[in-house]
């Protein structure tokens, strides 16, 4: 068994260099399972370190579930999966009180939302009422059932997948829930060489079966504290504010303040991954598309991505 603490230096546990090294270890480990998606893996690590949640929209069979499992295994975290279906109930997500006849008391049976990495598989197959069961926990890191509130494990990250090829059999995610996802990304199909390598890896036992952790949940918590201390100076904050204002002028529904906060946090994580303790405009520009495009609604033929691209083009860096 790999010693997940072997590379941990206590003296540097709260440095951006340690965070950058941690991210590299996790990324390299996940790439033992996932072929050809380095940028997507980095997106998930940024989201995890920045205390966010991620939405994966793609066709079936491109490795979304394996990606989530590999992340959880790499940080020695608990992995839970929620298979969203049209008949899934909110209590199937959050948990339910069960009457124990022996003790004559109700006992709480935790739902799958109580994990470090929670995969919401095909989240748009469930009706809005069931989707909404994630609203509280994604925002407040807690679950309330029958008036009793319980905290979920720390760290906690939701990685939800969304089927985009069967719109007649799915439900649109409510805007309040979309706004709680820090990032939305796509994996896409592998190219020929990547698929050839993938087939070679899975011709025997799947590599996920032998994957070992290279970090701990405590390492992730430490990294999150480091990222909170990454400096975001006023010129960068003003730049984000001007970008947000531009989207609100160009779209029916622009970026919310929650979206601005998410962008700043993602930029802080990106800076730490680059071993910097301060954010520069390049960090904002690198993260903005995956953080903002899914939050924007237009009444024209433009997409959220179009609005973001125009904001980047017309809003100057000062």
UniProtKB/TrEMBL annotation:
InterPro entries linked to this entry: ATPase_AAA-3 (IPR011703), CbbQ/NirQ/NorQ/GpvN (IPR050764), ChlI/MoxR_AAA_lid (IPR041628), P-loop_NTPase (IPR027417)
Ranges where the ATPase AAA-3 domain occurs: 53-182
Residue ranges constituting the ChlI/MoxR AAA lid domain according to the UniProt record: 244-309
GO MF annotation list: ATP binding; ATP hydrolysis activity
The name this protein goes by in its record: AAA domain-containing protein
Biological source species: Haloferax marinum
């Amino acid at each position: 068994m790999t010693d997940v603490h072997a590379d941990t230096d206590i003296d540097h546990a709260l440095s951006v260099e340690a965070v950058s090294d941690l991210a590299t270890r996790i990324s390299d480990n996940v790439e033992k399972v996932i072929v050809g998606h380095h940028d997507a893996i980095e997106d998930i690590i940024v989201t995890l370190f920045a205390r966010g949640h991620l939405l994966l929209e793609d066709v079936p069979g491109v490795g979304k579930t394996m990606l989530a499992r590999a992340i959880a295994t790499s940080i020695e975290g608990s992995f839970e999966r929620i298979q969203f279906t049209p008949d899934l109930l909110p209590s199937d997500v959050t948990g339910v009180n069960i009457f124990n006849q022996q003790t004559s008391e109700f006992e709480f049976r935790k739902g799958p939302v109580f994990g470090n990495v929670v995969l919401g598989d095909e989240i748009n197959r469930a009706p809005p009422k069931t989707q909404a069961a994630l609203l509280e926990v994604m925002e407040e890191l807690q679950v309330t059932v029958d008036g009793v509130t319980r905290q979920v494990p720390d760290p906690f990250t939701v990685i939800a997948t969304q089927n985009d090829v069967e719109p007649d059999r799915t439900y649109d995610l409510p805007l309040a829930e979309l706004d709680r996802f820090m990032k939305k990304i796509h994996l896409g199909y592998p190219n020929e060489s990547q698929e050839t390598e993938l087939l070679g890896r899975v011709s025997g036992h799947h590599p996920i079966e032998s994957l070992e952790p290279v970090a701990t949940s405590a390492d992730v918590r430490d990294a999150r504290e480091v990222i909170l201390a990454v400096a975001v100076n006023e010129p960068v904050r003003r730049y984000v504010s001007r970008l947000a204002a531009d989207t609100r002028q160009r779209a029916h529904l622009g970026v919310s303040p929650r979206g601005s906060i998410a962008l700043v946090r993602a930029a802080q994580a990106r800076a730490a991954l680059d071993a910097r303790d301060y954010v520069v405009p390049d960090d904002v520009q690198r993260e903005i598309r995956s953080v903002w495009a899914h939050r924007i609604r237009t009444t024209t033929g433009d997409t959220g991505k179009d609005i973001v691209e125009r904001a980047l083009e017309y809003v100057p860096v000062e």
